[in-house]
Every structure is written in C-alpha cells, then in structure tokens.
Amino acid sequence: MNCTEANDLKHAYVDGELDAMHCMELEEHLKSCPNCTLAKSNLENLRSAIRLDEQYFRAPTRLQRQIRSALRFDEEPAGPVASWLQQFWFKFAAVSLVTALLAWLVALQLNIRSSTDRLTDEIASAHYRSLMAEHLMDVASSDKHTVKPWFTGRVDFGVPVVDLTDHGYPLIGGRLDYIQDRSVAALVYKRNQKHVINLFIWPESNDKAETQRPASYRGFNLVQWCAAGMNFWAVSDLNRGELSEFAQLIKEQTPAAPKP
C-alpha cells in the first residue's frame, strides 16, 4: 500500500468502517510511514474534538434569520399585506423548525446505529485478524488456572475464565486484544476441533441488566451480553444455535459480581 491509497482509507479506518483486510494493510503501512501516521493522528484528534461538542446543536444561520424576521413582523402594525406576510413567515418558520427537528432526530438515530455497527465491526475484525495473522493466543493452555493468572497485570480487571470442556467447548488459551480504545481479554475456545470461538471480555461501566443479542456480520455469528459487571462478546463461524448455547453456558458458570 502506498501513501495515496492510505490517504483514501484513513477516514474509514478512523471511523471504524474499514473492513478487516484493508485494516491490516493500512496498519502495516502506518508502521513504516510517519507522514501517514501523523495524518491519522490528526484525524483522530479532530474526531475527538468533534465528539466533545456532539451534544450541542446550533440552528443554521439561515433558520435563525427566518425566525428573527418572523418575530419582527409580530411587532409591526398588522395591515393587510403585513398580516399576510406575518402568517407566511410564521408558517415558513414553523415548517423549517419541524424539518430541522426531524433531521436532527434522524441524524441522532443514525449515529446511535453507526456506533453499534462500529463496535460489531471491531469485534468481527479482531476475530478475523486473530485467525489471519496467526496471533490467536498469547498463552496457550486448556487449564483455566494457567490462563486466568496470565492476565493479571496485563488488564485492569479480573477475567472470569470458564472451562467448558465437559460441554464440548474446550478452552485452548487467551490473549490481549484492543477494542473500543481499551485493552480487553480474549479467551479462545474450540468446537469440534475446527471452529474457533473468541470470547472478548471487558468491564461494563453502565451496570446494564443482563442482555443477549445474537447477530450475524460478515460471515460470522456474534452473541453479546452483560453479566457480573462485564461485557461479553462471543464471535465465531459456528452456527448461531451452538454459539448461543456456548454463551448460555458461560453465563451460567460466570461468578456473580461482588456486591459493593
């Protein structure tokens, strides 16, 4: 990949909308190109600055002028022409306000959906990279008493490690990964010796009720839920039924979060 190609892809990369293969190619290019790395950092800084202000919305200048004009007509003597203009501007301002409100609501909904889509893409891409880059495990072991302490000092939370060998989902190891700008734990399981399951885990700060949301994305099945103060994402090419069974077994055997 050259700098021109990297420049064309950097916006989608920063927004989390780039597919896994192009992500890998771009990341390899960034390792050896300080100019493109700087451009990506500047774009990330700009994105962060915009996010800081994202909950404030200012009416367009044209709409502000229209509203002020309508208010000025209200203060003038109401002759036949003035009365007609007054009604016209008030109706126009009302329609403009409703249109602007609807546009804002649609944009807000799209932003919420795109945030969920970006996280799903991150999870699927991380799973894909672990298979393609041959970096499936940092610690290879089927013993949860070996895998669990390996994460100590590498992540800032206790990793609940469950062994499901008796249920046909043997633990084979774990690794560090990076999701939503933070380090997360990835536990690796197998099914029938050919299907790899990545179980991504990180703390859930919002203290949500337990939820489970099966989904399919780019050829992978995913199940997400919250339990014991943690966010869990299971992803695999395994069929949805077996992946949901795996998720249920993890939920049943994950220790409850300690009460404060």
Overall pLDDT, averaged? 78
Order of helix and strand elements from N to C terminus: HHHHHEHEEEEEEH
Total number of helices: 7
Q: Unreliable segments (pLDDT under 50, ≥5 consecutive)?
A: none
CATH architecture of the domain at 136-253: 2-Layer Sandwich
Oligomer: single chain
Biggest sheet overview: 7 strands, antiparallel
Spatial strand order of the main sheet? 1-2-3-4-7-6-5
Structural class: alpha+beta
Distance between the termini: 51 Å
Shape: elongated
Total strands: the figure is: 7
Helix content: 40-55%
CATH fold call of the domain at 136-253: Phosphorylase Kinase, domain 1
Radius of gyration: 26 Å
Q: Tell me the fraction of residues in β-strands, as a range.
A: 15-25%
Instruction: Return the CATH class of the domain at 136-253.
Output: Alpha Beta
Could you give a short description of this structure?
The chain is an alpha+beta fold and 260 residues long.
Give structural notes.
The chain has 260 residues and is of the alpha+beta class. Among the domains are: 50 residues, no CATH class; 118 residues, Phosphorylase Kinase, domain 1. 51% of the residues lie in helices and 20% in strands. It is built from 7 helices and 7 strands, in the order αααααβαββββββα. It has a 7-stranded antiparallel β-sheet, with helices on both faces. Helix 1 runs parallel beside helix 3, helix 2 packs across helix 3 and helix 4 runs antiparallel to helix 5. It is elongated, with a radius of gyration of 26 Å. The N and C termini lie far apart (51 Å).
